[in-house]
Every structure is written in C-alpha cells, then in structure tokens.
Amino acid sequence: KEGLSKTRKGFIDKVETLFTGRAIDDEFFEELEEILIQADVGVKTTMKLVDDLRDIVDERRIKDTGELRSIFKEEIEKLLGEPSPLEFKEGLNILMVVGVNGVGKTTTIAKIADRLKREGKKILLAAGDTFRAAAIDQLKVWGNRVGVDVIAHSEGADAGAVVFDAIHAAQSRGVDLLIVDTAGRLHTQKNLMEELKKVRRVIDKEANDAYVQVLQVVDATTGQNAINQVKLFNEAVKVDGIVLTKLDGTAKGGIVIAIKDELDIPIKLIGVGEKAEDLQDFNPKDFIAALFA
Ligand code: GDP
After folding, report:
1. How does the average pLDDT of the chain come out, rounded?
2. Does the beta carbon of 268 sit less than 6 angstroms from any atom of ligand 1?
3. Which of 45, 143, 224, 251 has the CB geometry, 3.0–4.6 Å to 261, for a possible disulfide?
C-alpha cells in the first residue's frame, strides 16, 4: 500500500535494521524503545510491548533476532486485535461525526457518503457546523459532487435545530443514512462541548429507533494529540469509533498502536490519501502486512 510508505520507511525500516543480526541485550531493548516512542507508539504502550518482549526472550531463551522479529510482529498483531468495520442496520442510521477543525472531517463525510451511495443507500447530510459559513458551503459543494442532499440553515443558526430538521427530513424521505457534520473549533472548547452534547441529545430524542453512532475523526500527523482529542470528545458525547486520517502524511504510523492500546474505542476507518478510495476499512492484519512487507 502506497499510503503507508512513509511509515514503512521511517518507522519499520528502523525496526528491521535493529532486528538484523545482533545480540539481544539491554542496548537492543533500549534502542527498540526509542524507535517505538519516536514512532508515536506512546510511552505506556512502548513500555508494555518491550517488557513483554523481554519476558518472552527470557522464558523461551531466544537468541536470534530473526525469531524475535516474528514474535514482535505477532505481539503487535495481538495488540491491534480484530477488525471493527463500520456497520449499518436496517432502517435509519445516523452517524454523528465529530473532530477538531482541519483533521479531515468534511472530506471523511464526503468519502463515506460516496461509498455508501455507490452501494445503493439513500443518504442525507446535515450541516451541523453552523459556526463557520465556509463549513456549510463546503458540505454543500461535497453534497453536489457526490449527489446527496444537504440540510442546512444559515451561519450562526442553532446546530440542534439543523439536526432536528435533518432527522425529520430523513424519516419522512426514508433515508438509510443521515451523516451529521458538527463544529470543531477548539479555541472555545467549553462552548463546543456543550453544543455537541446538545446535538447528541437532539439525536437521541428525535431519532426513535434509528441506529446512532458517533464517529470521531483524528489526524495521524498530530501524534499523541489525537489521543487527547478523543479523550476530550468521548467525555462529552461518547465516541463509538475512530477515523484516523492522513496516515499517508506521517512516518509515525505507531499512533495506530497507541490508539488501540490507550483507548477502548475501535479504529473503524483509516485515511491514506485525498481520493475517495483512500478511505479504507481498518484491518489490523492488512495493516501489519503492509508495514512488514
Ligand atoms: P475539516 O476541517 O476537519 O472538515 O477538514 P477537511 O475535510 O477540510 O480536510 C482538511 C484537509 O485534509 C483537506 O485538504 C483534505 O483533502 C485533507 N485530508 C483529509 N483526509 C486525508 C488523508 O487521509 N490523507 C491526506 N493526505 N489528506 C487528507
């Protein structure tokens, strides 16, 4: 996969060099630790991984770095667990999409809409970021391009009211999937969280038996910040799944491992480029295979 080539060159090549014919001693583990931390795996997760490897080396009396390489791969695979793709049910599905401005929220919404429209689903978008006129316009442009309707009010309108209208429109039009864009201005964090909670309340109240999921979009190039952002939004609106964008733009793909280990929220999709097909279901096995090609 081309999208992961930077991580392969920046992170994995260092791992491969380390695992090539040398003694497994303290220095080896210290170097591994450094490589993992530099690749955004995070201190906690790095310590855990390296400690586990030390134990395995002791227990099984491993002398060969080649053997340890396969064990390292297996440990990461174990850590990443099973895939958890986006799922949709019969009837109305609602995706509330949250995230800080600039992470790729709007393009992710467009990519999801495009994919599901091709699968024959009836889709509606709600322009819930009423704070910025540009956000409303951008969603309309995408709606036009993909060929789906957008429910929008004017700039400064109440986000809850937009979502209220969108849900009722979705219900009366027999829509399969309503995707709700939301504001992401972090400089007024408190207000933002209150606004998102309100949007969530409107959805829960009006959606009847719709299948509601909150998706948070985070930018892989922001490293550990991505984890802090999820913690913050999860407290306010309870996040069901993560979309990790811009993995093609970082050499530190270790953030995937940190997210999985530090948060109890699955990565559903990854973005590895700007084109529609660059938003992919996250599959741990494929991910590892692409890295350790
Ligand atoms: P928003 O402010 O969160 O709505 O962000 P946008 O959707 O406007 O995206 C910001 C920029 O990131 C745009 O230029 C997108 O094309 C770009 N972008 C989004 N996802 C990806 C990705 O997976 N890879 C790359 N390279 N760029 C992306």
Report:
1. 95
2. no
3. 45
